[in-house]
């Protein structure tokens, strides 16, 4: 039985010695030279020595009694001196002096015990240790009470864990020595458990040192270290309790005691494995540690490294989707949506969804920039907690959310994306796993990563536009070769015209041919001037959109399916005749390309509310949402291989925008496509250009036919 008790004591004090040795190293490496920090290091080191001496005593029993009592007094004295330094001016001077003098007197009395024994005065070692322990424990607890009570309200938060940790050491000593005074002897179980009680104080003292920088102990303890250390200690306590329970089962189980003990311990192991593997338990433990042991909820170093790693990953080509995933993973959110402002700034459109795809989010729609949500985010730059908004709408100025957001309570967080204080988009995050509460720290972190993501997306967009500009440069270089070829053709045609003067006696059809050639020369010359940039700027005239539509339909009528037209009569707009005709022709030819010969291409023209709307509807293959969003209007991106240059749709949209209109496209795979071109109607008071527009060069028509 004595062997078992010695083993328990050795494990108990060995654990305490290891814990305080690590604490001493941590404090020493973080020390900046102040006296308070030095005494804390000394107290921790002395406690480690005290625990090591008692561990050796339980192992071999060869430690002299005088040394055991000496390390007990020195350990208590070191903590009392550390407490007087921590308390400083908050402690009454007489109390600090009395505590220090008591330590000195007890230490002198202990050291003089051999001399007193030679003089015939014998001291009871147990009685001396018990009463010395009572005096020093009581003095330390009084000092702690004075330190905490005289500290300010702000300082108490940082001193709380220190008082709990050190107070736990001396409160247990007071209990143990009081029990010894009552029973005439210190209980062996209480003495052996003392080491583990001291070990429990180590993390509390470390956290207190980190929370008090004026001690000059800049201690950093990682959340992961605290989490796994706490888990390890909890598992240890659990195993000790289960071992005691198993021993009790064996004692009361009679002949079945051994079997019952095995079953009990096996069940305890299964329960332990289930608890350790529970994500819910891990989350609750992490929240508890962050909330009660740290001033900061997040380990920002690890979170920022993970955020940057995700943001810069090449797992997905879609940069907005990757940015959304980087934000969501910080909070453990199961998903989210990303809205970005259109180039015109008129609305915010859904740009990315994670982990789902936008194609599966049919209920989403663009949000006009004049609606309540974008205006609120741009004005206040607040993070919106939708649950808090539903419970206390007055906190958010009674903001009305879009219907799809109101009808999905699992969408918990709306965070703005700001660049130079301009709202470029916003993120909607699904509710993270419980327990979750949106704190001010969460809001600050969301604002920070939101600005970073906004800058990241803007940089990506700028890089894309730069790449497009370089492609346009390559296109311009291509036109130089085209001009060279055209120049040669013009020279040849001009030579024919010059020689024609000598052949007027030939049949009349030759004259017609010469006129055609002359016209071709003029058109090629005009094209060359346009490519050089020396042509006169285009002129917008009052034109009949219905007439232009019929002209474009006639040009496309030779192909199947032939477009069917429904017009509301004359509709006048202000535009360049040939360019607008080419735009309509381009849309029609694309609809014919996408539709089989047995399909339909229908054209309708209406006017209302000072606007004319031209709609081209086909029953062709259609396009998915990703193609519409990322490729349809992107220059130099063609689905026709070498036959097209991929700028027809881009040119059509940009020209319509340049004359005050807009192009809208609705399409679904297998359901056809609907192009809607909206233009402002001609105003009667508008200035009428009296110069007749010349026919456009062949480049526009060629592009419309081949792209």
Model regions low in confidence, pLDDT < 50 over at least 5 residues: 685-707
Number of strands: 13
Helical/strand content category: alpha+beta
Percentage of residues assigned to helices = 55-70%
Which band does the percent of strand residues land in? Answer: 5-15%
Distance between the termini: 95 Å
The count of helical stretches stands at 23
What is the makeup of the main sheet? 6 strands, antiparallel
The mean pLDDT is: 76
In short:
The protein is 61% helix and 11% strand. It is of the alpha+beta class.
Structural notes for this entry:
This protein has 23 helices and 13 strands. The protein is elongated, with a radius of gyration of 43 Å. It has a 6-stranded antiparallel sheet with strand order 3-2-1-6-5-4. A 5-stranded mixed sheet has the order 8-10-11-13-12, covered by helices on one side. A hairpin with a 5-residue loop joins β1 and β2. α1 runs parallel beside α8, α3 packs parallel to α6 and α12 packs antiparallel against α13. It is an alpha+beta fold and 707 residues long.
């Amino acid at each position: 039985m004595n062997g078992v008790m010695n083993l328990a004591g050795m494990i108990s004090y060995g654990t305490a010695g290891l814990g305080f040795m690590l604490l001493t190293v941590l404090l020493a490496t973080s020390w900046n030279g102040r006296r308070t920090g030095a005494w804390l290091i000394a107290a921790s080191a002395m406690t480690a020595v005290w625990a090591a001496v008692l561990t050796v005593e339980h192992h071999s029993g060869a430690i002299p009694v005088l040394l055991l009592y000496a390390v007990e007094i020195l350990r208590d004295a070191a903590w009392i001196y550390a407490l007087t330094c921590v308390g400083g001016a908050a402690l009454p001077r007489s109390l600090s002096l009395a505590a220090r003098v008591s330590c000195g007197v007890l230490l002198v009395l202990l050291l003089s015990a051999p001399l007193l024994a030679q003089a015939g005065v014998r001291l009871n070692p147990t009685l001396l240790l018990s009463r010395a322990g009572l005096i020093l424990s009581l003095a330390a607890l009084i000092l702690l009470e004075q330190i905490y009570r005289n500290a300010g309200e702000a300082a108490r938060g940082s001193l709380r864990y220190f008082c709990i940790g050190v107070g736990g050491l001396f409160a247990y000593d007071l209990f143990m020595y009081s029990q010894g005074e009552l029973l005439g002897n210190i209980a062996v179980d209480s003495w052996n458990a003392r080491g583990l009680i001291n070990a429990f104080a180590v993390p509390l003292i470390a956290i207190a040192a980190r929370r008090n920088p004026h001690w000059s102990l800049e201690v950093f303890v990682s959340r992961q270290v605290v989490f796994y250390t706490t888990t390890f200690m909890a598992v240890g306590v659990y195993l000790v309790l289960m071992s005691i329970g198993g021993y009790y089962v064996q004692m009361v189980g009679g002949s079945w005691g051994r079997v019952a003990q095995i079953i009990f311990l096996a069940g305890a192991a299964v329960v332990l494995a289930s608890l350790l593997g529970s994500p819910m338990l891990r989350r609750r433990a992490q929240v508890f540690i962050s909330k009660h042991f740290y001033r900061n909820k997040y380990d920002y170093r690890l979170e920022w490294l993970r955020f940057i790693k995700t943001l810069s990953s090449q797992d997905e080509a879609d940069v907005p989707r990757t940015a959304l995933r980087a934000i969501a993973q910080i909070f453990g959110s199961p998903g989210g949506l990303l809205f970005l402002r259109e180039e015109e700034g008129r609305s915010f459109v859904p740009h990315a969804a994670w982990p789902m795809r936008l194609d599966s989010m049919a209920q989403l729609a663009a949000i006009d920039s004049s609606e309540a949500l974008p205006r609120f985010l741009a004005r206040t730059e607040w993070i919106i907690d939708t649950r808090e908004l539903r419970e206390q709408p007055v906190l958010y100025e009674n903001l009305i959310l879009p219907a799809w957001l109101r009808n999905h309570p699992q969408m918990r967080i709306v965070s703005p994306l700001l660049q130079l204080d301009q709202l470029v988009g916003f993120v909607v995050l699904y509710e993270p796993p419980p327990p979750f509460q949106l704190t001010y720290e969460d809001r600050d972190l969301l604002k920070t990563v939101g600005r970073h993501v906004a800058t990241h997306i803007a940089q990506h967009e700028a890089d894309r536009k730069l790449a497009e500009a370089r492609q346009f440069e390559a296109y311009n270089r291509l036109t130089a070769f085209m001009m060279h070829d055209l120049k040669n053709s013009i020279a040849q045609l001009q030579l024919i015209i010059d020689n024609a003067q000598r052949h007027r006696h030939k049949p009349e059809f030759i004259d017609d041919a010469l006129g055609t050639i002359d016209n071709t020369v003029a058109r090629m010359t005009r094209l060359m001037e346009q490519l050089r940039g020396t042509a006169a700027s285009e002129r917008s005239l009052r034109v009949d959109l219905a007439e232009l539509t019929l002209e474009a339909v006639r040009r496309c009528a030779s192909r199947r399916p032939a477009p069917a037209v429904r017009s509301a009569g004359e509709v006048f707009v202000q535009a360049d005749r040939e360019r607008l005709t080419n735009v309509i022709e381009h849309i029609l030819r694309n609809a014919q390309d996408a539709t089989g010969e047995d399909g339909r291409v229908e054209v309708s023209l209406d006017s209302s509310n000072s606007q004319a709307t031209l709609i081209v509807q086909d029953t062709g293959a259609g396009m998915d949402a990703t193609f519409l969003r990322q490729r349809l209007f992107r220059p130099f991106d063609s689905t026709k291989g070498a036959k097209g240059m991929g700028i027809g749709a881009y040119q059509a949209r940009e020209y319509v925008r340049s004359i005050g209109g807009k192009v809208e496209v609705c399409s679904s795979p297998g359901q056809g496509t609907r192009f809607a071109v909206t233009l402002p109607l001609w105003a009667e008071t508008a200035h009428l250009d009296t110069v007749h527009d010349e026919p456009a060069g062949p480049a526009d028509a060629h592009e419309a036919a081949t792209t």
